[in-house]
Amino acid sequence: MENVIVISSSSSAADTLSDFIKESFDCQVTIAESARHARGIISRCRSFELVIINSPLADEAGIELAEYVAEVTAASCVVLVKSENYEKISPHADKSDIILVAKPFSKHFLYQVIKTVNSAIKRSYMLYEENVRLERKIDEIKLIDKAKFRLMQYRNMTEEEAHSYLEQYAMKNRKKKTIAASEIIDKINEQYL
Questions:
Q1: Dist. CA 167–CA 144, nearest whole Å
Q2: 175 phi and psi, to 5 degrees?
Q3: Which residues, in sequence order, are bridge partners of residue 51?
Q4: 3-class DSSP string for the chain
Q5: How far apart are CA 56 and CA 60, in angstroms?
Q6: What does the alpha-carbon distance between residue 136 and residue 188 come to, in Å, rounded to a whole number?
Q7: Could you point out which of 60, 82, 110, 173 has its C-alpha 20 to 30 Å from the C-alpha of 134?
């Protein structure tokens, strides 16, 4: 977790939360003093991984902002609410996957909540990176297969001959198979299409 935004109408609470998060998780923390201010920041920079809202805010309760965050970003959202409001807000939070923490709470409890969110963020990012890597690999396979298909179709090669031709072309020209495949496709397109 690298980017966190803390939204609190109480500057002392914002500073305390910010210091705690920076100390505990070694990340960049931005502070907003109202829902309006936070919306402006979030609309300009959607790279926040965690949003912490100290409810209520000066201009709204805070759950509306949390729902907005859940709708327009991929950030996890933690809302700190007064314990007497927890049951009333809980159904709204559950619909949008917002984490509620009833006040008062201990630093240890908040640490555990943020640590759990941080672990989920890391796992999610690892899965995202793996997915991107696999998609790239699939695109490479498609490109190579397209080149082989063109060789089979327009140069009357068998699949084995097309495969061998592509590998030899890549080795001879000292290029990756995907670049070689792209060049072969371009040459065949120029010649036959």
A1: 10
A2: -130, 155
A3: 5, 77
A4: CCEEEEEECCHHHHHHHHHHHHHHHCCEEEEECCHHHHHHHHHHCCCCCEEEEECCCCCCCCHHHHHHHHHHCCCEEEEEEEHHHHHHHHHHHHHCCCEEEEECCCHHHHHHHHHHHHHHHHHHHHHHHHHHHHHHHHHHHHHHHHHHHHHHHHCCCCHHHHHHHHHHHHHHCCCCHHHHHHHHHHHHHHHHC
A5: 7
A6: 24
A7: 173
pLDDT band at 121 (very low <50, low <70, confident <90, very high): confident
Which tens digit of pLDDT belongs to each residue from 39-58? 999 999 878 999 999 999 99
Radius of gyration, CA atoms only, the chain? 26
Pairing of strands 3-8, 50-54: parallel
CB 107 within 8 A of CB 20: yes
